[in-house]
Design goal:
The protein is of the alpha/beta class. The protein has 10 helices and 7 strands. Helix 1 packs across helix 10 (about 215-229) and helix 8 runs antiparallel to helix 9 (about 170-185).
Length: about 230
């Protein structure tokens, strides 16, 4: 079994989900008392969030590059960035280490293609929804991407940072997300990507009228498959 390196803490609320999913995945495959071999570096999210808001991505990437070097030094053989948004600096982070980076959008694209999804809605932070770094990765695989309307994007972004990243799960926010998902379906989405690792803390796929793709679960499953191949 290979050792999985994780850069987490963005936010730690969803990093818990990664840790659980990786260990559950290994146990499901190997049984008994088996668990995942993990080297985790959990960053302080507050300064990174400020750098995001100020469009200082190179500096934010340098923090994650240092974290990547630390997990490589700790024995990690592959690397996960446990957040969608910070994949904006994935190339900078990957360039800092010699171990492979398992990209969250690539794992998600594989899942969508396996399900025959041609057009997908994308929820996430404003950075993930509006900038090209994530969307183009999917489009290069032949998947069309639909994002919410501007006011909807404002709500999606606000709920992530003001509530989910701080451990707040609000029924009104869940209903707002479901409304936005229904609108994405009306606009042609065959499925919707939960493109922020906190969103799965809020939504139950069974309550959605369209398939939801939980990037935390997808990324973790891809890492387990890689670690055990």
């Amino acid at each position: 079994m290979k050792t999985i390196g994780i850069i987490g803490g963005m936010s730690w609320e969803s990093t818990q989900s990664y840790y659980r999913a990786l260990n559950q995945g290994v146990k499901a495959r190997l049984g008994g008392l088996h668990s995942a071999q993990i080297c985790l570096y959990s960053v302080d999210f507050a300064p990174i969030e400020r750098l995001q808001a100020e469009d200082r991505w190179q500096e934010a990437g340098a923090i994650l590059a240092d974290a990547a070097r630390a997990v490589e030094a700790g024995g990690a053989e592959g690397l996960l960035i446990a957040t969608n948004t910070m994949h904006k600096v994935a190339d900078q982070v990957a360039g800092a280490v010699s171990i492979p980076l398992l990209h969250i959008a690539d794992a998600t694209a594989e899942c969508l293609l396996a399900d025959g999804v041609k057009t997908v809605g994308l929820l996430g932070t404003r950075f993930t929804m509006e900038q090209a770094f994530y969307r183009e990765r999917l489009e290069q695989r032949g998947i069309a991407v639909v994002i919410p309307m501007e006011r909807q994007r404002d709500d999606v972004h606000r709920i992530i940072y003001d509530e989910l990243c701080q451990g707040r799960i609000e029924a009104d926010s869940r209903q707002r997300y479901l409304q936005i998902i229904a609108d994405l379906q009306l606009r042609g989405a065959d499925g919707v990507i939960l493109g922020c690792t906190e969103i799965a803390l809020l939504l139950d796929p069974a309550r959605s009228s369209v398939p939801l793709y939980d990037t935390t679960a997808i990324h973790a499953a891809a890492a387990v498959a890689w670690a055990l191949q």
